[in-house]
Structures are given as C-alpha cells and as structure tokens.
C-alpha cells in the first residue's frame, strides 16, 4: 500500500526550547512536548523543574513519557520536508524559476506580489502555513514582477488614474493624483475590454470587405482574360485574310494592345497585392488584439492598449473596379471597308487619357460613340473598326 502523505504544519512538531523539529520526543504531565536532550539540559541548569511552555512548576522531576510511534511519525515528517514533492519539475525554457532555490532551480508555481518573488512548491509552503504570510497576494508565476511596481515609490500598481491614463500605486493616489478620477485595475480592464471588442469588430468588417473585394478582382481578371482571348481569336481570323498591309497594321496594333494589356494587368496586380498586404496586416492586428483580449495581465493590457486599439489606415484599394465589357460588333460590320485605310492605321499612336480623380480600373470594348475615344483623320468605316482595341481607361487615338 502506498505510504500516506502527512498534511501537518511544522509548528506542531517544533520544540519550544530549540525551535527545531522534535528529536526524541518526550511529554510532560501537563501535555507539552520537548526534545529529551533540551528539557534535560534546562533542568540541569536550573534547580526548579518547570514546563518551558506553560511554566507549570513541579516539586520533583516528573516522569517523562516517550512515544515510540510518534517519534517515527516525526522522522517521516522530516524526510517529507527535506525531499521535494514528486510533482515538482525543474525550470525549463520559458518557465519562471523559483527565487529561493539554490543550484538548479525548480519551476515556480506562484509569484507573491507582496514579497515580489516567485516560489516553487516547497518554498511556497510558508505562505500557506505561517500566519504572517497567509494574507500575501499570490498570483500565477510572473517573471516580470518589477513591471508591476511603481517606478517612483516601488509599490505595487493597484489603481488606474483615468485623468492621466496611467497605472499608479496607492502612494501616487494619495499624493500626485489625489484629486484625479481613479478606479481599480480590474474595473478599467473591463472598460478597455469593451473597447477592444469594438475595435475587433471593426477589423473583422474590414477583413470581410477586403476579402470580398479580392475575390471580385480575381473573378474580373479571369473574365477579362477570357474576353480578350475570344476577341483576339476573332480578330486574328479577320486580319489573316487581308493583304500585307492588313498584316502589318494588325501586327502593330496587336503590339500596342499587348502593351496596354500589360499596363492594365500590372495596375490590377498592384491593386491585388495591396489588398493582400492590407488583409495580412488586418489579420495580424486581429491576432494581436485577440491575444491581448485574452491575457490575464491587466497591466500589460493597459500599457499596450493605446498602440493596439487604433485601426490601421484604410487605403483606397476598395475603390478599384474591374469591368469586363467587350463589344466589337461594329468592327465585323465595317471590315469590308478596312483595306483602303489600313496604311493610315500603322501611323496612329495609342494613348491613355485619365479623367481627373479617376481611380477605377476598366476594360472597355465599346464603339466610338459610347466611349471617350477621339480619332482624327480616319474614314468612318475605320473609326468603327478601330473600336476593337481593348483599354483599361478611356483611349485617345490620333
């Protein structure tokens, strides 16, 4: 059978003469216990025989009672006190060490805000047994106890000054912050916790909005690629049937189209990259706020609250729009009249005109009448034929 543990206080086995654990215990008729060696020495030094505990005087040396079984219990108690509990473990990386262990230190199980020290299970016992230590403020192990002290008075930070937005000790409350509005750390923590909730909800809304926008951008880009591919195939079939003049014009226009497509693709990719960065930043901020919201350290939350509870600046990435609207019906109708004007086409330049304040992204394949395209010196049939050129913004052909 496993040996039972002894849940007793050391004071119960302490000799009142030597103030150590009883050794070879003997009992007086009055009921008090002493070490045999201690009481024999006292009686040898004094003519009067008396109890050192209650001062009861005996006319003759009383008969001392010995308790063999109780002496065995005391021996086991000594061994229990000298051996660390089996559940204790040495401090490892990230653990708080016991401040009172010598040599290899055990892992601390509690920190005392009154003593400003951390204790393992063995060295923590006096806080449970001694009357002078029972009322100390014990918390979970904390390696940053100094941060909980007032830098001016070296007292525990127990209050929060709402006037100056700072944590203070009781001495600060009675002096520098005497007439200020003050609350307990827990009360202020609850208020800040509510503000954290508001900030987190704001971040979640932004995340949802930006993630939705990113999906829309991806879909629009795919639609644009499909549309461009389809229209290029149509125009390739038309141009390959024309003479060398048509092929040369087709080649030059295709090159310009590709350049324009590349520019607009780069713009779109830039917007997508910005959205991804903003989403990553918001997720990072969300994780930090979740971690801060769940911390049990009131002081840490209050000290870092101001820097974490501000929403990051929101850019204008949500204002970008990709519109895949490709229409070149007029081109097919006017191809029959294109041959006479092909030589002029190769001399034209494609330019992008950006209206003031425009930040939207477009893919426009519309007729001249429905766009901001200006074409000079071109026959009517050629104006409509040229409308197949796809653009990201209003186009100017000259």
Structure, described:
InterPro entries: E3_ubiq-ligase_TRIM/RNF (IPR051051), TRIM8/14/16/25/29/45/65_CC (IPR058030), Znf-RING_euk (IPR027370), Znf_B-box (IPR000315), Znf_RING (IPR001841), Znf_RING/FYVE/PHD (IPR013083), Znf_RING_CS (IPR017907), Znf_UBR (IPR003126). This is Tripartite motif-containing protein 16-like. Among the domains are: 10-82, 2-Layer Sandwich (Herpes Virus-1); 204-397, no CATH class. The protein contains ten helices and 16 strands. It has helices spanning 36-45, 68-82, 121-129, 170-174, 185-240, 244-294, 298-308, 329-334, 342-345, 380-385, and strands spanning 25-27, 33-35, 49-50, 57-58, 65-66, 110-112, 117-119, 138-139, 159-161, 166-168, 182-184, 324-326, 350-352, 363-365, 374-375, 395-397. The strands form six sheets. It has a three-stranded antiparallel β-sheet with strand order 2-1-5. A three-stranded antiparallel β-sheet has the order 7-6-8. The protein has a three-stranded antiparallel β-sheet with strand order 10-9-11. A hairpin with a 6-residue loop joins strand 3 (49-50) and strand 4. The radius of gyration is 44 Å and the shape is elongated. The N and C termini lie far apart (103 Å). The model is unreliable at 1-8, 82-86 and 350-398 (pLDDT under 50).
């Amino acid at each position: 059978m496993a040996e039972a543990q002894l849940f007793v206080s050391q004071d119960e086995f302490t000799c009142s003469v030597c103030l150590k654990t009883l050794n070879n215990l003997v009992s007086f008729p009055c009921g008090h216990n002493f070490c045999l060696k201690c009481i024999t020495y006292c009686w040898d030094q004094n003519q009067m025989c008396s109890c050192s505990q209650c001062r009861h005087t005996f006319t003759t040396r009383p008969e001392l009672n010995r308790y063999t079984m109780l002496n065995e219990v005391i021996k086991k108690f000594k061994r229990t006190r000298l051996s660390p509990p089996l559940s204790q473990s040495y401090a490892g990386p990230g653990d708080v060490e016991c401040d009172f262990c010598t040599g290899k230190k055990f892992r601390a199980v509690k920190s005392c805000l009154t003593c400003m020290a951390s204790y393992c299970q063995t060295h923590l016992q006096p806080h449970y047994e001694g009357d002078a230590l029972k009322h100390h403020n014990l918390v979970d192990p904390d390696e940053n106890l100094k941060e909980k002290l007032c830098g001016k008075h070296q007292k525990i930070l127990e209050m929060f000054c709402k006037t100056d937005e700072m944590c203070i000790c009781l001495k600060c409350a009675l002096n520098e912050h005497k007439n200020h509005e003050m609350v307990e750390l827990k009360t202020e923590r609850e208020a800040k916790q509510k503000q954290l909730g508001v900030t987190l909800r704001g971040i979640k809304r932004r995340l949802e909005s930006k993630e939705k926008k990113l999906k829309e951008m991806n879909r629009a880009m795919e639609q644009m690629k499909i549309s461009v591919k389809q229209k290029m195939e149509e125009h390739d079939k038309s141009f390959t049937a024309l003479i060398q003049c048509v092929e040369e014009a087709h080649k030059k226009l295709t090159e310009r189209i590709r350049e324009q497509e590349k520019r607009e693709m780069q713009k779109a990719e830039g917007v997508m990259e910005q959205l991804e960065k903003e989403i990553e930043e918001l997720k990072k901020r969300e994780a930090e706020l979740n971690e801060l919201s769940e911390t049990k350290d009131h002081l840490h939350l209050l000290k870092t609250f101001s820097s974490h509870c501000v929403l990051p600046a929101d850019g204008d990435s949500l204002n970008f729009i990709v519109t895949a609207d490709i229409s070149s019906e007029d081109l097919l109708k006017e191809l029959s009249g294109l041959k006479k004007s092909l030589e002029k086409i190769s001399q034209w330049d494609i330019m992008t005109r950006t209206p003031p304040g425009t930040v939207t992204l477009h893919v426009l394949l519309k007729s001249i009448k429905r766009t901001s395209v200006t074409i000079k010196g071109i026959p009517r049939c050629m104006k409509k034929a040229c409308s197949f050129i796809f653009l990201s913004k209003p186009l100017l052909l000259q």
